[in-house]
Design a protein that fits this description.
The complex is a heterotrimer of chains A (about 900), B (about 300) and C (about 280). Chain A is α/β, with parallel strands linked by helices. In chain A, about 30% of the residues lie in helices and about 15% in strands. Chain A is built from 33 helices and 38 strands. The two termini of chain B are about 20 Å apart. Classes of the chains: A alpha/beta (about 900), B mainly alpha (about 300), C alpha+beta (about 280). Chains B and C meet through strand 4, helix 4, helix 5, helix 8 and helix 9 of B and helix 1, helix 2, helix 3 and strand 1 of C.
């Protein structure tokens, strides 16, 4: 950082003095520098990047961040950072930071085909409102959508959810977290009836074993990986296993590396379950007391569209599998069917993929019976150059580690499990293994889903910014949850829309088929990150629609937009994040945003001033709505009821939803600010503390309902470094479901008290056999889920696997980290990691430029055979941060049919020299 | 005489100068264009490298024979490719006349010519005298030192190398050496570098001394001994009239075939032509006694 | 028209002989003077050249470059390697650059050598200054990376190791070792350079994210130490004692040079009267 002129002169004088009296100049300079630093204001914050949630300290001077440091008091990272975190201060100061609203215009008027032109905020919001009303009047609440983020601040996500669901009565709000951990969420809900992990990071220091499943922790969760390695260095019996489809950085630190074929994790987990039963290692007392067994349909499709109307010609063969599929031989064996016969099945349960029912232990046992060592080893061995015997030995070793009753074990997983056409299944299977062994909810024994984003938990999940969710684990399609929400929000009954909205991939599809024509994107770059991008880029630019993107930098999504709103970045606003171990961390506004950039929250509230209750709380058409108490296809007019509650038709949504008397009671300025500004409040021109009011309003949902957050001010105390919810009586909860640590456990030592889906019919592996429902409060479910082949596998034409993912140097689509020159220089371009022999076979060498082509498009990139990832034969990897390579043009937009999370890990490609 | 001079169109008088500049700059441009603008022919890079060594169309290697000689003298073996390249270049200049290189190719010539003109027009003083043959001593030293210190001695200090490298590959501080040369030639010794010191010039003086086929021919019958040619010649000693009269042509290897003398001669006594095998054959009327300046002190 | 000018004492030269050579004595005198000038000039000249060749030992040469003495002799300074490099890595040193004038070098912090498998710079070299015998670019030794552990993020505990991940010879040229941090429950992942594998390509130096690179590439001889031949690390198999290369043999030479009669080493000291 530069010295100010005054201090520069001062140090110049010091240097002159130093020479005169013979003091080393460097020491004098450091004294001068220390003097400069006296004027710095240090305050706590959170790292902007991954889900680990490292604490950082931020130094500011004259409205600029002058330095950051890892927070030595933060229990997560104790002063450390990864190299992205090291650059937290620099991401705000990229050269092309957006500082004023930009709209596509021709001759001074909005024109979809026009050029971006700077406009005032008023012009921007006026056009945005005109376009909103056009779409809303024409198509109703389903014609508009919001793509949000797991990087949204808690308050931003909450405000947008309230505006969309209570105001616009639309459930078409979905975060990019959908493509990050929705599978984990779906499995949490199905298995435990409540979201988020029972354990926490401290499990690492208590365990004897860490198994990483589809989680390149060494790169994706860098500082957490240091704790794993430290445990191994300090604990002689510690073992680390890396289960992966390619050799990666995590392999370097592992004792056992198991390279498997894509999607065979489902088979491998069934092998483990079978082995646990065979070895008599089931923790019978635990299972009897705390578990039930479940099964579900298997004809659930792949989350693609059932029609080929929009498919490219080359996509049609794969798309057809959404309607009907012929089982592979391995799938048949895994389902206990005769492998010699051809089994063609219709995807009858594609829309009801989340159905499940109770089965018996014997059913479960029969289900996993085909998953013998021989079958699974043959099926799953991912490295053609490894011997089958060696691979079998590894599987047995893995089973030894899991089955050993004395061994504590943590399973970590990330995108390898979650971005998976059977992502929910495989998440459930890992719980099944842990539940069978009773290795859960106690220090050192933990199935732990690592999140990718800094507030995937804190905002996307806990606030409930999904198309089906409401705050505190509630969902829109349960009447009781809507009632609670309507009461909390003081809404007339039946204001909330009971029909689940469009998830992020469906929002893109809605844009393509024209059923949605107004979309607002915040804290997110969906036009780069959503799979099969060629479709959506075209839909956004060529269909009659209006896309607003709030962004700090000119990303691909901003380029696609019709209106760009410049945003304040993380430390330019008050806010909070929640990390993967349920730790909620809040910070103050440290520096003002540049130019006319404003917080996303300010934008949400300002926009809400332009819509009145009369426009939204009237009768609304919702195609396909069918719910008890609702007229088919319609939301009722609630204006009359609203008027009885004191609302007026001409009231704006801002007045009705945000500037409520309760919220206005939180005065600004507030002592907690300690002299820090609040540009959101300033530009709204109000005297209430918006972020605090919204936080407290939101926290009201969870308090007393297993999701207790501490009071807003507590998080700002100097001695607090985030707290793991539920925070009950001022105490955080390190391990949930365990009476020793969790005040919500009322019955016995262990209680899975989550309340969702705890009443089911009973049947066998093929389906329910009774209508009658059984309740099983306090229990978790052990699912049988069979092996399922990927929807698309390499064939004669597209002959190579492509997996996409992250790497340490860059964050997601690189919008921020690519603005840091040092990080850009360290990793300037995404390369295709592939096996040297595969390259040779195609007449290629490292550094050759190639075309990479899938059924969905082609891109140009350079191949690397000695890169950080060393794929086995037939497999390749590319990171998705690089917009100039744009790998997501290639990826298939198939999803897990339950979680609707896309599978970015399994696309068939071919490559050839440019 | 004066009227006669004016009858010749100005541009025609400049023809050789223009042609030389075109060749000099053209060569540099070929190198530069190939490097910076990707000039190519049939998809092959036109001329890559620089005057020390280069490759024509990605096929034929050319090399500076003097540099090659120095390297050989350091005791290092060289690849056949570069030896052939040096031989090729050497062959060309053996036929054309060694110092054709100096006035038609060498980029430093651009600088020293300007300095020479300035000297003639402004200063006209030499601070001290340097013998023309000093360059042979420098040449001998370059070769000897190459042997002694194991480094190609001249290549390590050559302002010629510095200049063309820096023109082709981007400017560094080499221009300072050129400024030095320029000032030296302008203010210290007329034609100080090219005419007295440059060992590369000395090397080329020896090359083709007896074999150069293109020479400046002298027609004694028309010469009136005005001395204009010597006044403009950067190597005036080669226009020794006695020898000219004897040989009917410029035989000295030090002549650079720059052709300054040809258009300046009011009597058109000088012209390019093929080397005469018989000294003095044809053009020299032996009986005619030339009036020399020193005959009339 | 007379063009005689004071500065041109003999504007119209007719004789090749200069008047100073007229007497025998003058000739000898001039010869001696000339020889003296030539010798001192030659010494100055060679001093300049040698100084220039040695002045900047920091220069990194293209792959396959011969040892300095040979490279400096053979390099014809033609720049064809520079033209051939597809990444614009190489530069011909201009005056006052960090390498001897006119020779190719690169600064990895600007652009490193990306180790092209077909080594186009070597192919382009006409003189063999870039050794034609280099076949695998991974065998080239342009320099050696070293880490300033005081300013290396990883050595201070942060998760960086960018140098390790970008290294084309990962685990052969840079390895990561783990060590407990002790201050907290975090391990340190420490990059370590292995001189056996390091090509000196400088990709690590280029990628290093600190303000001034904490990993740098320099010619190996500038940074690499050497333990005495008289000691072998017995625990390293490659250095295990084998007949004929043991310490005894190395010392043998020194001990064998038997001192002449009456000149036993140490006598001088022992026979000094003072204590």
């Amino acid at each position: 950082m530069e010295l100010s002129r005054r201090n520069f002169l001062k140090s110049g004088v010091a240097a002159a003095t130093a020479m005169a009296v013979g003091v080393p100049i460097s020491r004098i300079a450091s004294v001068a520098a220390a003097e400069t630093e006296q004027d710095w204001r240090w305050d706590k914050g959170v790292c902007r990047f991954c889900g680990v949630g490292c604490g950082i300290m931020i130094a500011t001077q004259d409205g600029k961040i002058v330095a950051t440091k890892g927070d030595p008091d933060a229990p997560v990272n104790r002063g450390l950072n990864c190299v992205k975190g090291y650059f937290n201060g620099k991401i705000l100061y990229g050269k092309d930071r957006l500082t004023q609203p930009l709209m596509r215009m021709t001759d001074g008027r909005f024109d979809k085909k026009g050029k971006f032109t700077p406009v005032t905020w008023d012009q921007a919001f006026d056009e945005m409102a005109i376009q909103f009303k056009k779409a809303y009047e024409e198509k109703g609440p389903t014609g508009i959508g919001v793509i949000g983020s797991g990087q949204w601040l808690i308050q931003e996500g909450y405000a947008m959810t309230k505006l969309m669901k209570a105001g616009f009565r639309s459930n078409n709000i979905d975060p990019n977290a959908r493509n990050c951990m929705a599978s984990a969420v779906a499995a949490f809900m199905q298995v435990f009836g409540i979201d988020e992990p029972p354990g926490n990071y401290d499990d690492i220091e208590y365990t004897d074993t860490v198994v990483a499943w589809g989680a390149n922790m060494a790169e994706a969760h860098p500082v957490l990986w240091q704790r794993v390695i430290d445990r191994r260095l300090g604990h002689s019996d510690m073992k680390i296993v890396n289960i992966t489809t390619l050799r990666n950085m995590t392999s370097e630190g592992s004792d056992l590396e198991i390279i498997i074929k894509p999607n065979t994790d489902t088979a491998l987990l069934n092998y483990l379950a079978r082995e646990i039963i065979q070895r008599d290692a089931v923790n019978q007392a635990f299972v009897d007391a705390h578990c039930v067994f479940c099964a579900g349909p298997t004809d659930i499709g792949y989350g693609m569209r059932a029609t080929d109307k929009f498919a490219f010609e080359a996509e049609k063969d794969i798309q057809a599998r959404e309607v009907e599929v012929t089982l592979t031989r391995d799938e048949a064996i895994g389902l206990g069917l005769d492998p010699e016969q051809v089994h063609t099945i219709k995807q009858a349960n594609a829309a009801t993929a989340d159905r499940h029912w109770l089965v018996g232990f014997e059913d479960f046992k029969a289900g996993v019976a085909p998953y013998t060592l021989d079958f699974v080893a043959e099926l799953a061995k991912g490295d053609a150059e490894e011997s089958l015997d060696a691979f079998k030995a590894k599987l047995m070793r893995l089973a030894d580690l899991y089955a050993d009753p004395k061994r504590k074990l943590v399973s970590f997983w990330t995108m390898g499990f979650n971005q998976h056409v059977r992502g929910t299944w495989v998440n459930e299977q890992i719980y099944s293994v842990h539940l069978l062994l009773g290795k859960i909810a106690e220090p050192g024994n933990s199935p732990f889903s690592l999140t990718g984003q800094p507030s995937a938990c804190g905002t996307a999940r806990e606030v409930g910014t999904f198309s089906h969710r409401l705050p505190a684990d509630m969902v829109v399609n349960i009447a009781k949850h809507r009632d609670i929400t309507e009461q909390t929000w003081k809404l007339p009954p039946k204001t909330l829309n009971p029909k689940v909205g469009s998830h992020i991939t469906k929002i893109m599809r809605d844009l393509e088929d024209g059923s949605m024509s107004w979309v607002w994107v915040q804290v997110n770059n969906p036009f780069q990150h959503v799979a099969n991008a060629n479709h959506w880029l075209k839909a956004a630019r060529e269909n009659d629609n209006f896309i607003v993107v709030s962004d700090a930098y000119p990303s691909i999504s901003a380029k696609v937009a019709d209106l760009i709103l410049p945003v304040a970045m993380i430390f330019e606003k008050w806010g909070g994040y929640g990390n993967a171990e349920r730790r909620t961390q809040l910070w103050r506004e440290q520096v003002p945003p540049p130019g006319e950039a404003r917080s996303d929250l300010w934008q949400i509230l300002e926009f809400s001033k332009r819509i009145t209750l009369a426009e939204v709380w009237k009768e609304q058409a919702i195609p396909g709505l069918k719910d008890e108490g609702f007229e088919e296809g319609k939301l009722p007019d609630v204006m009359a009821a609203a008027q009885e509650m004191g609302y007026q038709p001409e009231m704006t949504l801002y007045e009705a939803l945000f500037e409520t008397p309760e919220n206005k009671a939180f005065a600004w300025p507030d002592p907690v600010s300690k002299g820090h500004d609040n540009h959101t409040v300033k530009h709204l021109g109000v005297d209430w503390f918006v972020e605090k009011a919204l936080f407290e309003e939101y926290a009201g949902f969870g308090r007393g309902h297993h999701h207790d957050l501490a009071p807003f001010d507590v998080y700002y105390q100097d001695d607090v470094r985030g707290l793991r919810w539920p925070v009950v009586d001022g105490k955080e909860t390190p391990w949930r479901f365990n009476a020793k640590y969790d005040p919500y456990v009322k019955n016995g030592e262990i209680e899975f008290y989550g309340g969702a889906m705890k009443e089911l019919t009973t049947g066998n592996l093929t389906g329910p056999t009774t209508e009658e429902k059984t309740k099983f409060p306090g229990k978790a479910k052990i699912f049988f889920r069979p092996y399922a082949a990927p929807v698309e596998s390499p064939d004669g034409n597209y002959d190579l696997w492509l997996c996409t993912g992250r790497l340490l140097e860059h964050w997601h689509t690189g919008t921020m980290t690519r603005r840091v020159p040092e990080l850009h220089r360290a990793m300037p371009a995404a390369v295709l990691d592939m096996n040297e022999k595969d390259a040779e076979e195609r007449g290629l060498k490292r550094q050759d430029a190639v075309w990479i082509e899938s059924r969905r498009g082609k891109i140009k990139a350079v191949i690397e055979t000695t890169g950080r990832n060393r794929p086995p034969r037939g497999y390749s990897f590319m990171a998705f941060f690089d917009e100039s390579v744009f790998v997501n043009k290639l990826c298939i937009d198939a999803t897990c049919p339950i979680s609707k999370e896309e599978d970015f890990k399994k696309t068939a490609i071919k490559i050839y020299k440019v | 005489m004066a009227t006669k001079r004016q009858t010749t169109p100005a541009l025609w008088n400049w023809r050789y100068l223009i042609l030389r500049r075109v060749v000099q700059i053209g060569v540099l441009l070929l190198f530069f264009g190939t490097l910076h603008w990707g000039w190519s022919l049939f998809g092959l890079p036109l001329l890559s490298g620089n005057l020390s060594a280069s490759e024509v169309l990605g096929q034929v290697t050319l090399a500076d024979p003097f540099a090659t000689l120095q390297i050989l003298l350091t005791g290092h073996g060289l690849q056949a490719e570069v030896l052939l390249g040096a031989a090729l270049v050497l062959g060309v200049f053996v036929i054309l006349g060694g110092r054709v290189w100096c006035s038609w190719v060498c980029p430093v010539n651009l600088v020293t010519d300007v300095a020479g003109v300035l000297h003639r027009k402004t200063w006209r003083k030499n601070l001290f005298a340097l013998p023309h043959h000093l360059r042979y001593t420098v040449l001998a030293l370059a070769l000897l030192l190459s042997v002694l210190i194991g480094l190609p001695a001249f290549e390590w200090v050559s302002p010629i190398g510095a200049m063309h490298r820096e023109i082709i590959f981007g400017l560094g501080l080499g221009w300072t050496a050129l400024v030095g040369l320029f000032l030296f030639d302008w203010l210290v010794v007329k034609h100080g570098w090219c005419g007295h010191l440059c060992p590369l010039g000395a090397f080329y003086s020896l090359v083709g001394r007896h074999t150069a086929q293109i020479r400046v021919k002298f027609d004694q019958s028309t010469c009136n001994g005005c001395g204009d040619c010597q006044a403009i010649c950067p190597e005036p000693q080669v226009l020794n009239l006695k020898r000219l009269a004897r040989d009917g042509q410029v035989l000295s290897g030090e002549c650079t075939n720059c052709a300054r003398c040809i258009p300046i001669c009011p009597e058109k006594s000088l012209a390019f032509g093929w080397r005469l095998t018989q000294p003095g054959s044809g053009s020299v009327p032996a009986q005619h006694r030339l009036i020399m300046k020193e005959d009339n002190p | 028209m007379c063009r005689t000018h004071p500065s041109e004492p003999s504007a119209f030269i007719t004789s090749g002989d200069s008047p100073i050579m007229t007497t025998r004595r003058g000739f000898i005198q001039k010869t001696i003077q000339g020889a003296a000038v030539a010798t001192s000039g030659g010494m100055l000249w060679s001093y300049l050249v040698i100084q220039n060749a040695r002045a900047e030992p920091l220069a990194l040469r293209p792959p396959g470059a011969l040892p300095d003495a040979d490279f400096n002799a053979l390099c014809i300074k033609c720049g064809r390697c520079v033209v051939a490099c597809p990444y614009d890595t190489l530069t011909l040193a201009a005056l006052a650059d960090r390498a001897p004038l006119g020779t190719p070098y690169f600064e990895p912090r600007q652009i490193p050598c990306y180790l092209c498998h077909d080594i186009p710079c070597k192919v382009a070299c006409p003189t063999g200054a870039l050794s034609p015998t280099l076949e695998n670019v991974m065998d080239s030794r342009m320099g050696l990376a070293f880490i300033d552990t005081e300013h290396c993020l990883s050595w201070q505990g942060l998760r960086c190791e960018i140098c390790y991940r970008v290294c084309p010879l990962r685990d052969k040229a840079i390895r990561v070792e783990t060590r407990r941090r002790e201050l907290s429950k975090h391990a340190m992942l420490l990059p370590i350079v292995l001189s056996e594998g390091c090509t000196g390509c400088g990709i690590c130096e280029n990628a290093c994210p600190t303000e001034i690179a904490a990993i740098k590439v320099l010619p190996a001889e500038l940074i690499q130490g050497k333990i005495g031949d008289h000691f072998r690390m017995g625990w390293k198999q490659a250095d295990g004692a084998t007949p004929g290369s043991g310490p005894g043999d190395t010392w043998k030479g020194q001990m064998d040079a038997a001192p002449a009669q009456g000149q036993a080493p140490g006598l001088d000291y022992l026979n000094e009267p003072e204590f």
